[in-house]
Specification:
single chain; alpha+beta; Cyclophilin; two-stranded antiparallel sheet; 4 helices; 6 strands; 23% strand
């Protein structure tokens, strides 16, 4: 049998590190939260209220207020500046109405929606003030006599 001899291992040259071009790591900004469509430019003032009031809950972050959806809906009517017209057909003849949508957009919108739904059909109008208003009698008032 042959005896194994421990020979010193031949020195192997250590390989030189390859020159690697390090690529820079670009830090990306954290993703912003989605901004609601009805976001306003004014704050809710919760942070200020929490500093001055003992009843307000503590808030350390400033938040933008949100516009009410109806206010946004009527803004287009208000900015357009046109008047709207409607005609009520009565048994005494036609009654032409001029609606001031830029001044009272919600009232005009409600009136037009009720008219579209047929709420004014067969309605008794008990008061007419020319150039100002008409006053209808609704179901419960009619049953009570006026």
């Amino acid at each position: 049998m042959y005896a194994l001899q421990n020979k010193p291992a031949a020195a192997t040259p250590t390989p030189k590190p390859k020159s690697v071009n390090p690529t820079p790591i670009i830090a990306s900004a954290p993703a912003k939260a989605a901004v609601p469509y009805n976001n306003s430019a004014v704050s809710t003032n919760r942070a200020a209220a929490s500093l001055t009031s003992t009843t307000a809950s503590i808030s350390t972050k400033s938040e933008n207020a949100l516009w009410h959806e109806e206010d946004m809906m009527y803004e287009a009517v208000r900015n357009k500046g046109d008047k709207a017209y409607a005609r009520l057909v009565t048994n005494f003849g036609n009654l032409n109405l001029e609606l001031y949508a830029p001044i009272a957009p919600r009232t005009c919108y409600n009136f037009l929606q009720l008219a579209h739904e047929g709420k004014y059909e067969d309605t008794i109008f008990h008061r007419l003030i020319p150039g100002f208003m008409v006053s209808p009698v609704w179901g419960s008032e009619l049953q009570l006599g006026g």
